[in-house]
Amino acid sequence: MKNLGQLVLGGLFLFIGNAQGNQLFQNPMINGYPLDLCKEWASNCGKPATDAFCKLKGFPEAITYSVKHDSPTTRIINGGQLCDMPQCDRITAVVCKQESVVFSYPIRYGANNTVLDWCSPWAQNCGLPTADRFCKEKGFTRASSHGGMRNLSAGEKSRIFGEGQVCDDAGCGSFRRITCVR
Question: Based on the domain organization, do 63 and 121 belong to the same domain?
């Protein structure tokens, strides 16, 4: 598994931004054998098989894939059968889509409708480390990005993640946005 920069399909370079967190799996395997082109024996071939592989790996779906024809032995993902006939086709690469959710300002956290502070703990681990902690609490793997710090408006307060402390001075800030990924 790699972060994706490019995938070669029949001599054509396909670019899918790794900023989105998509994942490239080269020569995907199922229980020790290459992934067959078909999800079930000779049916639901192509995207259904690669979608099932991506879901097995924790991603919502496949974006694209490449195939090597007539390349046994392969394993059918749904059922586990082996295909050892000369006409068996294998998936040689699959790009799985990274699921993401964007939380935009104001990102509310804690009591009294306060916004999430830029740092956690106080004046430490500012930016991405705090965004990561926020995403993990929401059930995501990590934060892939954030939109930078936003200074608080007069009278606005932010709450320190995990600490509960409130920051209300001129140096306090919050996030413009946080992108969380699974």
Answer: no
Distances (CA, A) of 15 to 3, 50, 51, 55, 78: 12, 18, 19, 22, 29
pTM over 0.85: no
- Contact (Cβ atoms closer than 8 angstroms) between residue 121 and residue 163: yes
- Decide if 158 contacts 150 (C-beta within 8 A): no
- Contact (CB, 8 A) for 91 and 35: yes
Tokens of 92: 């040689």
The answer to whether residues 26 and 83 belong to one domain is yes
Tokens coding 10: 């029949």
Average confidence (pLDDT) over 104-127: 88
Asked which of 79, 97, 115 is the last residue of a domain, the reply is 97
Tokens of 84: 């050892």
- Domain check: are 111 and 47 in the same one? no
The count of C-alpha atoms lying within 13 angstroms of the C-alpha of 30, restricted to the half-sphere facing its C-beta, is 27
Mean per-residue pLDDT for 8-22?
A: 46
**In the structure encoding, which two tokens stand for residue 53, read together?**
């592989």
Q: How many domains does the chain have?
A: 2
Indicate if the pLDDT at residue 51 is higher than 60: yes
> What 3-state DSSP class applies to 9?
strand
